[in-house]
Amino acid sequence: MPQPSAAGMAERVGRATVRGLDELGFAAVLLAQSLYWLAAGRRQRQPVRIAAVFTQAREIGIDALPILTILTFTIGVMLAIQGIYSLKAFGAESRVTTGIALSVVREFSSLITGILVAGRSGSALAARLGTMKINQEIDALTVMGINPVRYLVAPPLVAMVVMVPALTMWAHIVSLFAAGLYASTQLELSFDAYLTQIFEVLRLADLAHGLAKATIFSVLITIIGVVNGAMVTGGAEGVGRMTTRSVVHAISAIVITDMIFAFAVAR
Amino acid sequence: MTAAPITIEVANLTAAFGERVVLNGVNLTVAEGEILVIMGGSGSGKSTLLNHLLGLLRPRQGVVKLLGLDINQARPAEMRDLRRKMGVAFQGGALFSSLSVADNIMLPLREHTDLDPNTIEIMARLKLEVVDLAGFGDLMPAELSGGMTKRAALARAIVMDPKLLFCDEPSAGLDPVVSAAIDDLILRLRDAMRMTIVVVTHDLDSAFKIADRICVLDHGEIIALGTKDEIRHSGNQRVQNLLNRRSVDVILDPDAYLRRLFGEG
Predict the structure, then answer these.
(1) Dist. CA B224–CA B211, nearest whole Å
(2) Segments of chain A with pLDDT less than 50
(3) Is the ipTM of this complex over 0.90?
(4) Is B108 close to A146, i.e. CB distance below 8 A?
(5) What is the pLDDT of residue A4?
(6) What is the nearest CA distance from B119 to chain A, expressed in angstroms?
(7) How much is the average pLDDT of B10-28?
C-alpha cells in the first residue's frame, strides 16, 4: 500500500484533472459530431431521422408537461407569498408584481425546467445509452455502418434544444398565472391589473435572457447524459452509477452556468 | 481452396490495453467462401481479435484488411460501404431493445437502402424464415429465449446479404439441439450465399462441425492454424490440452508464489 503523502496526493489530483479534461474533450467532440451529422448527414446518405427527433421531443417535452405544470404553479404561488412577505417590511406589497415577473422570467422558469428535464430525460438518456453500451448495441450500430452519434445523440439534442425553451415558456405562463391568482386575493389588485403590470414590467430582453439560458441548459443536459451513458462500464450497477452521476453533474452544471450567465449578462 | 481470393488478411496484428499485450503479432488469412473458426480459452485474446477484425478497436501495430480494404486507413465513406458488406452476430445478440424483432432486422435496410417499406418487410420476413423465426417478428427482444435471440441476431446480420459474416459465440449457453441447429444454419448460409464466415467459439463440437479451418489462440498468439485434421493431430501440447479439456499444468515457483501472496508482485 502506498502511504498517503504529498506526492501521492498530487498524483491523485493530477490524475483526476486529466480524467476531467478527458471527459470535457469527449463532450466537445460529441457536440461537434452531432452538429456535423445534423448539417452534413443528408449528403452522406446518413440523415438524422425526423421521426426519431419527434419521439424524443414527445418524451422530453409533452410527457413532462403535467409535472412541470404542478411544479411551476407551486413556484409561482411560493414567489408571491415570499414576495409579499418581504415587501411588507417596506409597506411596498403592491410592487410585488415587478419581483415576480422578473424572477420568474429571468430565473426560475428556466432553472426549474432545466432541473426537471435533467432529472427526467438526462438520466433516461444516460441509462439508455449505458444499457445499450453494455449490451453491445452501440457496437452493433457501428458495425452496421450506422454512426451512433448520428443515430443516438443528434435526435435527443435537437429535441432538447427545441423542447426545453418551449417548456420554459409554458413555465412562464403557469407560474405567472399562479402568482397572479395568489396576489390578487391578498392585495388590492385585480387579476387584470396584475397582468397589465406584468406586461409593463417585462421587456423582450428579460424573455431572451431566460430562453437563452434554457437553450444552454438543454445542450448541457443532453451532452452530460450522453457522456455519462457512453462511459458506463461494469454491468447494471455501472448503469445505475452513471445515471445518478449524470443527474448530479447536469444539475450542478445548470446551477453554475446560471450564475455565470447572470454574472456575464445582467450586470 | 488456395485459389479462392483472400477476403480477410491480418498481418502482424499487435494489440495491448495499457502495458498488457493481448495479441502478439497475429497473422491470418481467410479465403472467400471459407468458414474459419477462432478457438481459444478465456483470456486467449479471441474477443480482442474479433473486435479488431470488426474495426471496433484500433491495433497498436499491424494491418487488418477486409475485402482488400485496410480498415484502419480507410476513408469514412469507404468504411461505410464495407460495413454494408459485412454482418455481425454478437454474443448476446445486441438486438435493440426498444425495437421489435422485425424492426431490428429491417433497420440496416431502412438506413442503407431506398427500398420501399413493403419490400423491406418482405425481406425481413424472408430472413426470419431462414432462421426459423417466422411469425416472431412482432415480439420484443426481451420476450425471446436465448436461442431465439441468437437466431434473430443472425437474421439481422445477414439481412443485407453480406459477403462477410462474423459470429461471436453463436452457440454459447444453448442446449445441444438448438446449438446444432445454429451450426447447420451457418453451414447453409455459406453454401447458399457463398459467404465468408468467421466464427469465434470455445465449443469444440460446434467448431469441428462447421470449420474449414481452425485457428487456435492462446495468450495472444496463434498456436495452431489448419484444417480440422491438422488441428486434431497437432503436436502442440497446449492445443491438445484444449481439445481434450485438460487443465493446464501449473508450473510451481515457490518464490514467485510467496511474492504474490505478500503483494510484492
Answers:
(1) 14
(2) 1
(3) no
(4) yes
(5) 61
(6) 20
(7) 88
